[in-house]
Design a protein that fits this description.
The complex is a heterodimer. By secondary structure, chain A is α+β, with helices and mostly antiparallel strands. Chain A has one domain: Cytochrome-c3 Hydrogenase, chain B (Orthogonal Bundle), CATH 1.10.645.10. In chain A, 51% of the residues are buried. In chain B, 66% of the residues lie in helices and 0% in strands. Chain B starts with 10 loop residues before the first helix and ends with a helix. Classes of the chains: A alpha+beta, B mainly alpha. At the A-B interface, helix 5, helix 6, helix 8 and helix 15 of A face helix 6, helix 9 and helix 12 of B.
Chain lengths: 391, 344
Amino acid sequence: MTVTDSQKLAYVAAQAADARVNLEFETDDGMTLNMGPQHPATHGTLRIIAKLDGEQVVSCEPLPGYMHRGYEKLCEVRTYPQVTALVNRIDWLGSFANEVPFILAAEELMGIEAPPRAQHIRTILFELSRVANISLFLGDLGIQLGGLTIGFYAFRDREHVLNQIEAVTGGRFHPNFDRIGGLKDDLPKGWIAETHTAMQKLRDFCNQAEDLLIGNEIFQARTRGVGIIPPEVALSYGLSGPNLRGSGVEWDLRKHACPKGLAYDKVDWKVWTHPDGDSFSRCWIRLQETREATKIVDQLLDTIPAGPVMAKVPRIIKVPEGEAYVETENPLGAMGYYVVSKGDLVPFRVKIRSASFNNVSIVPWVTRGVLVPDVISILASLYFILGDIDR
Amino acid sequence: MNTVLALDLAYWQETSIKVLVVAILVPTTALILGIVFLFKVMSWMQSRLGPQEAGPRGLLQLLADGVKFLQKEDLVPDRADRIVFKMAPMIVLISTVLLYVIIPAGPDLIVEDLPTGIFFALAVSSLSVIGILMAGWASANKYSLMGGLRAAGQLIAYELPMVLAVVGVVIQAGTLSMQGIVLAQANGEIFGFSGFGNPFILTQFVGFFIFLAAVQAELTQAPFDMPVAESEIVGGYQVEYSGFRFLFFFLGEFATAFAFAAITSVLFLGGWYVPFVDPTSDLQNYLGPIVLFGKIMFVSFLIFWFRFTYPRFREDQLQTFAWKFLIPLSLVNILATAVLKVVF
């Protein structure tokens, strides 16, 4: 294999960029601690460079980009139905939720609305992926803070949700199930009763997590009063999801700006907020949200309307010219797709607004002056997924 | 003279037998704790199977892991202080081996019954701090350095409550010798009933809990595992070690856990004393080790139970817990013990 000049140049440029970053952080006084790209606390390939004074953080800078997969560009060469298979991999723990905003945007452009049954099932799967995602967060939180056991319980109990998702979609991690105008398939037989049982098991898991971790004195000592984000700062950094609600801002897209095509208006549930804004409040909000999500699923399961799961959609999907931006409340926060169509088989441009990128952008602000162990607990409580940062 | 050790041996013969026994005991006990608690009990608590393939029910997994460690390349970082780097794991292991010298397993089953046995144990156990500091400093790694310094701060802080908790026992037993402490418990009585002696946990339960907490911290196990915190400083002072040097740290950790569990059993649970049997009888030499082993497994279970359950303290919270809670509490405990000793 011959190496072309452009490859050589790219390599030199990458080396130079790395050297520049290292130089910037090494020339000042104090110790520089490089965490990652391979570090257990970043569960993925986030690189964090912290300048330390003893164990105290003077400044801390996240350097994302080690997992950039170029989905926005890839979307431009995929037809609309093919895009869902790609965007599944953005937030890989709550993968079905990634498909929904894109499909909703495409539906908005085409002027189609999914039949009520499809909207219902879509919302159920959306909430199931939220439960799967956040239950694993509770386990990961334990692993980050040294309590390993809850991590294994989380993997064990997430299995119930994944089984239910698999039973409908055939995929555990990458369902690729949402279609423009509805869903690929209807629910299998007996699924509703099984899902009720699974939701009960997840509620038991939430109680267990509260006993074992969230209610633990050591955990509270580690997280209370650490990494406080005031509401105005949270808003100015564009935080969303539980991180924003943990700062006391009552803003949930499901309740306050739900896009067409999801059935959240048909259920009764509560948006939890916590006034403290510290690491603990963010973790606590997520615990409550898992419980709330299981309740939403239970209510929706009992009220699924009859009817088709697919609207009348042309066989070859050509989206008319136009632009649409749809944002939904994903497990990690607000996730939006800005889709520009030129009336072609493929989107002209797709801009993905993912929650974790903004959530991590507050790290330099919130870690100023904390201790190194607190960096870990703050990162764990902000809860990012690497695929969601880098896309 | 008891029959079990009635052989007439020369000094060098006796010494070499003792050296051999300790040399076999240290890795064996580490293996036992590793298999039983790290693999089996931990898997059971976390509702998973644990190793299943190597040997019956996966019991030989740790042996396989040990062989794997021996096969690994012996890496020394480029900028490391080579001599210090290589010495550090040995010093940690030496401190462990020395602990086994004073653990009594029967009236005659002890390597050396030092008149200041428990004092010796506490002294040599702090040797490991030097090894850990050496490892942390010589690795030329920032994570190692942080881990080493955290470990040094923590071990010194928890040395004190440990010593103070032992003082209560020593006051009550009236001796520093390990055999003396066992006999004091064996010959004691509770409310005039002398069937199973008077284990000091009944009167020194505050000391027992302080000692357990301090042991947990000395072993750098969760909730006191800040020096090695895997998810944060990725193993601390062990980061740069591989192969058999890492194995030494591993052996040291688990054999020390066993030794401290043994010391806890001797100090608070009555040691090798078999209830309802005369403490001087020969039967104690046969049954004593079994009884002691049972007690050690019980204490180890407590240690590992805490380890698997709790999240970890932050470094400053660790220090606060030691200096502002455990030490004052143990001082009060000493005072109460001394007063009650005079009164009764």
